[in-house]
Request: fold
Amino acid sequence: MQLNCGRFELDLTTPKVMGILNVTPDSFSDGGQFKAHDLALEHAKQMIEQGVDIIDVGAESTRPNAAFVSEEEEWARLEPILSSLQNFNVPISLDTRRTSIMKKALAEGWVDLVNDVSALEDEGAVELLAKQSNTAICLMHKQGNPENMQKEPYYEDVVAEVSQYLQDRVQVCKQAGIDTKRLLVDPGFGFGKTLAHNLALMNTLDQWAKDQEVPVLIGISRKNMLGKLVNEPEPKNRMVASVVAALAACARGAKIVRVHDVKETVQALTIWQHMGVFI
Reply:
């Protein structure tokens, strides 16, 4: 399984690790830690040394009840770090839901993957990405928006509905001329879902992932669902829970895991691969 990812081609026969680089003041786990340019760049270097496969850069928090960020502010946060990351030989992912931000970054040639929590539903996003030759795209499911998505989310059948939505968005991309070798899907843990919804998706991942035409990316690192399961209110203290969840996702078919704890996740996946878990 191969992903066309901008300047790179990623072999997904074994799981890959996407490291999170938030240049925001209010992300749920590491808000403010890497807002300063030098700190963000140093963290990127550290993740590369730890074996990261992709660096995902975001400048707008999409946690529940996150504050609104203007387009101007989002780009002001992104521009210096995206520019500096071009010196590193690693795929760069842009975490944004705005077509205008995608357009600016793509025009500079700064990103290899667009990671969109809105699955390219913003006006013009599909058409913009269709014009690119090989930029990868991650289409994520969410119910509602950050300001309201955790207010009594409801599904008749969360697994069937999330799976169908992702299949439908892949079809929209295909109809626009986007090659499936550029596409990933993400069920969106914690985005308009209760703990029961999240567990239903995780516990059936090996089944519904088979219905997807493209590889699955999982972002579960340090999330509230893990905190509830292990009674840990502080996101930074959920490292072990996050690594175990990442391993569980990969064992059930996830091809990329999006994580805060790169070193620990890479080590865990390496041990599992040497023990023959991922063949």
